[in-house]
């Protein structure tokens, strides 16, 4: 049973094994947004995934393979420089900046222990943020609260208060993409309860959920622009949906022109100057 638990954790986190993180300049021009200055910022054999931008937009943090395990790598956009942030016995996933000096990340240890930690950027120091919950994915609601994909039977979405150690069950049978909706107090997540998956919103104050739109078919990775537009890929192209304005998904970009396929994770910096995409290169 212990081996099965470890395997399940690994399968949930490792959605792709041979991926790269690509960075583009992003311009929300009309009629279609444009991506320019394509750069492979991981350029590394194995698993490179789960990019997120620093709050000042100067850095990208992502999980990258090193010496047979995944550690947190920081990429300096302006100077084109890399720096390793973590050095532990486990593998780190889903790094997100908490403050100028601290990151959070999920750590999976060789014995199957999987917890959410905080990491000090300037030195190799970490501490557990949430005890006794096997977290797969998460997003910060505010400085004290998290919305988390918690592994179990079934997997569940829970809001967790770090100050009080209280948790609230939001939903079950959910996907890995959890985000804060810009210019609001709401969060978004993927519901997989039905054959057609949906993007749902969650109000952490009222503790209410509602459906925004069904996902692009078969996709569970998205990001939000700073003006409240959802970007999502079917693995080959980029689509957009603006809640309150659009009735359905709109085609935006075909990634074949960039020789990329199997698009999954998408991340924008807060100013929407850059977009990071996890993908595989098309092999000619």
Q: What letter string, H or E per element, gives the SSE order?
A: HEEEEEEEEEEEEEEEEEEEEEEEEE
Main sheet attributes: strand count, strand direction, barrel closure: 5 strands, antiparallel
Mean pLDDT over the residues = 92
Rg, alpha carbons: 18 Å
Q: Catalogue the unreliable spans.
A: 1-15
From the spread of the alpha carbons, the general shape counts as globular
Measured by DSSP, the beta-strand proportion falls in over 45%
**Class by SSE composition:** mainly beta
Q: Helical percent range?
A: under 10%
Distance between the termini: 43 Å
**How many helices?**
1
* Total beta-strand segments: 25
Give an overview in words.
- The model is unreliable at 1-15 (pLDDT under 50).
- Strands 1, 2, 23, 24 and 25 form a five-stranded antiparallel beta sheet that branches.
- The chain contains one helix and 25 strands.
- With 284 residues, the protein is mostly beta strands.
- The chain is globular and about 45 Å long.
Q: What secondary-structure arrangement, pairings included, does this model have?
A:
Blueprint: H1 2-13, E1 20-27, E2 34-40, E3 48-53, E4 59-66, E5 69-76, E6 81-84, E7 91-97, E8 102-108, E9 114-120, E10 125-130, E11 135-140, E12 145-150, E13 156-161, E14 167-172, E15 179-180, E16 187-191, E17 198-203, E18 208-214, E19 222-224, E20 230-233, E21 237-241, E22 250-254, E23 260-261, E24 266-268, E25 274-281
Antiparallel strand pairs: 1-2, 1-25, 3-4, 4-5, 5-6, 7-8, 8-9, 9-10, 11-12, 12-13, 13-14, 15-16, 16-17, 17-18, 19-20, 20-21, 21-22, 23-25, 24-25
